[in-house]
Amino acid sequence: MRHRLEYLKDEVRCGFYIPTAIKQAWANYLDVLDVIDRICTKHGIVYFAEWGSLLGAVRHGGVIPWDDDVDICMKREDYIKFRQVADEELPEGFTIHDYNSLDDHWMFLSRVVNSERVNFDEDYLAEHYNFPWLVGIDIFLKDYLYKDRAEERARCKEVLRLIAMADTIREKKGTRELIDRLIRDIEEKYSVKLAEKSPLQISREVYGLAERQMARVKREDSDLMEQMFPWVLKDVVPGYPKEYFDHIVRLPFEDTTMPMPAYYTKTMRYGDYLAIHKKWDGHDYPFFETSKRIMEENAGEKLGGFSFDEALMERKRPEQENSLKVICEECLGEIAKMSEELGDAEKLAAMQQMAIDLGTLIEQVLGEKSDRAKACVAVLQELCEKIFGIYTAITEGVGGDIQQVGELESVIRALEKTIEENILRRRTVVFLANGPTEWDGLRNIYLREKGRPDTDVFVVPMPVFAKDAYGQVVASDEEIAKNAHIEEYPEELECRDWREFELGLVFADVIYSQCSWDYNNPYLTWPPGFYTGNLQRFSPEIVYCPLAGIGDFGPEDELDWYVMNHYITMPGAIAADKIYARSECLRQRFVEKLTDFSGEEFREEWERRVVVEPGLVRATAESEETGGPKKMLVCIGINEMFEHEKVFLESVRNRFDILGENRENIQPSIFLYPPDRSEWERANPEMAGKLWDLIEERDYWGEPLEFDPRFCTFSSWIERAVGEFDAYYGSSTPVMTAFRQEKKPVMLGDFGMKME
Question: What is the pTM of this model?
Answer without folding.
Answer: 0.91
